[in-house]
Amino acid sequence: MSTILLVDDEPEFLDLYTEILELMDHRVVQAHDGHEALKLAHVRRPDLVVTDWQMPRMSGVELCQQLIQDAELSGIPIIMHSAEQDPHAPGVTAFLSKCSTLSRFEEVVNQALTDSSENPQGPPSGPSVKELSATSRDTLWKQSRACGLLH
C-alpha cells in the first residue's frame, strides 16, 4: 500500500480523488495548499504527490520547486493536475488534466508509482463510477459538464 499526498484547494476534488485512490488501495494524506503539503511531506514521507497547479498561499509550481530542492524529498514523484493546459513545473513526473477520465487518472498514478519502484495498487480495470459515493459521482458529473463546456 502506497501513501499518496493529495493537494488541492477545492474540497470536492480532494474528496473525489481521495475516494478513488482509497478504492485503488492507497493511503491518502490531504493538504489544501502547497504550504500545508510541504509540512506533511516531511512528516509522512509520501510515495507520490498529486498536486493541483493553482492554489492559495503556495501554488503547485512552488510546491514542486520546494520538493525537488529538498534533499529528503527530491526523489518523490509528482503528478500535477490542472484545468489549464500542461502548465509545466520543475520535477513533475506527469501532467494530468482535471478533465481526464477515472481510468486515465488510475493509469497515471500507477505509472508514476511503477517508475519510482513502488508497486501499483488497485484493480486493473480501475475504480468504477458505481463504486463512488453519491457526492463523488456528483462532483465527477459536474467536472464532466465543465470539461465538456471547455472543449
What key phrases describe this protein's structure?
151 residues; alpha/beta; Rossmann fold; five-stranded parallel beta sheet; 5 helices; 16% strand; globular
Task: Walk me through this protein's architecture.
- 43% of the residues lie in helices and 16% in strands.
- The chain has helices at 11-23, 34-44, 60-69, 102-115, 134-150; strands spanning 3-7, 27-31, 48-52, 78-82, 94-97.
- Strands 2-1-3-4-5 form a five-stranded parallel β-sheet, sandwiched between helices.
- α1 packs across α5.
- The chain starts with a strand and ends with a helix.
- The model has no long low-confidence stretch (mean pLDDT 84).
Brief overview:
The protein has helices spanning 11-23, 34-44, 60-69, 102-115, 134-150; strands at 3-7, 27-31, 48-52, 78-82, 94-97. It has 151 residues and is of the alpha/beta class. It has a single domain (3-150), classed as 3-Layer(aba) Sandwich (Rossmann fold).
Helix content: 40-55%
Element-level helix/strand string:
EHEHEHEEHH
What class do helices, strands and sheet pairing give?
alpha/beta
Strand ordering within the main sheet: 2-1-3-4-5
The CATH topology corresponds to Rossmann fold
* Dominant shape: globular
**CATH-defined architecture:** 3-Layer(aba) Sandwich
User: What's the total number of strands?
Assistant: 5
Tally of contiguous helical segments: 5
Number of domains: 1
Strand content: 15-25%
Which segments are poorly predicted (pLDDT under 50) over 5 or more consecutive residues? none
Straight-line N-to-C gap: 36 Å
Keywords: Phosphoprotein
Modified residues (4-aspartylphosphate): 52
Protein name: Phosphate regulon response regulator PhoB
InterPro entries: Bact_response_regulator (IPR050595), CheY-like_superfamily (IPR011006), Sig_transdc_resp-reg_receiver (IPR001789)
